[in-house]
Amino acid sequence: MYYEEVVMKDTDTLSGLAAEYGYKVSDWRKIWDDPKNAALVKKRTKPEHLQKGDTWQIPIPWKTTRRVLTADPNGATFIVNRDGEPGKRLSWVQTVYRSNQPIGPNPSPYCVDGCTPDDNLPFYWTNGEVASPPAWTARTTGDPKVNLRKTFIDHSSRNAPSVWMGTTKWRAVVSIAVVTEKRVTVVDSYVWGFDLTPASLTLVGVAITPPSTCTAVGPTPASAGEISAHVNLLGKGWGTLAAAFAQAHLNAFVPTATFGAMGWTFRKPPS
Amino acid sequence: MRALLAGLLTLCMASCSGMQKEKKMDWKDRVDPKKAATVKAVLRVKLIRAEGSDKYGWDLVGLIGVIKNETGFSFPKEFQVAHYSVEPGVPKGESTIYLERYSEADPPEWKLLNGTARDGVSDNTP
Predict the structure, then answer these.
(1) Could A77 and B86 be called an inter-chain contact, meaning their C-beta atoms sit closer than 8 Å?
(2) Mean pLDDT for chain A?
(3) Rounded CA gap, A28 and A205, in Å?
(4) Which chain A residue shows the shortest CA-CA distance from B86?
(5) In this predicted structure, what is the pLDDT of residue B22?
């Protein structure tokens, strides 16, 4: 668990903040009664007396509760659930290393997924997908009321690489994202992916190397180094605004249009 | 002899143009009107290759013909079409595809209707 520092705005209420950070509305006392907020509670005495500018330390206990990784002949599917309530300041982020097979209009081996940006935000699901989950998310999870703030689903695949390309080692780091303004704290990060070995090399119709195989990798808790790389890559990722600029300028690197340059910050949970 | 050759040439031209007309009619007729009514672009394409997927899969397709295009975008001879990675993409062979914008990016990229071949593809001929 860590504490998210949150400064109240005019329109904020404690129960509202509780809901936004994944608590039931009725659980606002879990924040009020936390010893880290004792000084503020003593000063204001009642929730009705809270003021703009009051600073809360909101405990964030949420963690992933179910992680299912399934390999198939050309890739893997990863489904993750977390505990807590949906909370509109909670989301998912994923960074990807696409090894020797970057695909789609974005040619970079490293990316923030959707790797070819599908919006101008650093999160895995778009706001539209969260508001109205695509039909396949219910089919895939078996949950007709799937909530994408609480559920992450990805399926990655590649064609079998050639012998000359060598094994495709696709890797991703996925995290719960706690969002305050443009500050994103990554929580409970996991590494997953797959190794896809080259297709058979044939000579005069005879296979002289073994057929391609796919092996799932992980999921394993991300190491400190992996989380650092994940956070760094999130800052260097780019959305649709930068993608448009890059296309217009022949995929020139656009450091001024990264999420970091757009004011987003990414961090590990403060200790 | 000259008259015979001219006759043969005329016959061939009539026959060829007739064939072309018939072929055009053929792919232009391969449309699901309900799907077509919900999108701004309906194209007849041939799958060149499926490249794999991250959150989205990307299929490289070759343009056979434009059935409907109210996008203001001129589709090139070859281009990539997205679909959700969990969902089917453009199948092998020739298909009619129903497209929506992939994102707000400009120039635009395209995905199958609702991000899936279930909704964004019809009339596949393998």
Answers:
(1) yes
(2) 93
(3) 69
(4) A155
(5) 46
What SS3 state is found at A153?
A: strand
Contact B58 A116 (CB under 8 A): yes
pTM, entire model: 0.89
* Burial class of residue A26 in the structure, from the number of CB atoms within 10 Å of its CB (0-12 exposed, 13-18 middle, 19+ buried): exposed
- Residue B2: predicted pLDDT: 60
Q: Which residues of B touch A237 (CB under 8 A)?
A: none
Residues of B in contact with A153 (CB under 8 A): 86
pLDDT value for B17: 47
Q: Give A120's DSSP letter.
A: S
**ipTM reported for the complex, 2 dp:** 0.90
* pLDDT for position A107: 85
Q: Is B80 in CB contact (< 8 Å) with chain A?
A: yes
Q: How confident is the model over B5-51, as pLDDT tens digits? A: 555 555 445 444 444 444 555 788 899 999 999 999 999 999 999 99
Interface test with B, best of A97, A155, A158 (most B CBs within 10 A): A155
A64: Cβ–Cβ under 8 A, 6 or more apart, which residues? A80, A81, A82, A176, A188, A190
Bond prior to A219 in cis (omega within 30° of 0)? yes
C-alpha distance from B55 to closest chain A C-alpha (Å): 5
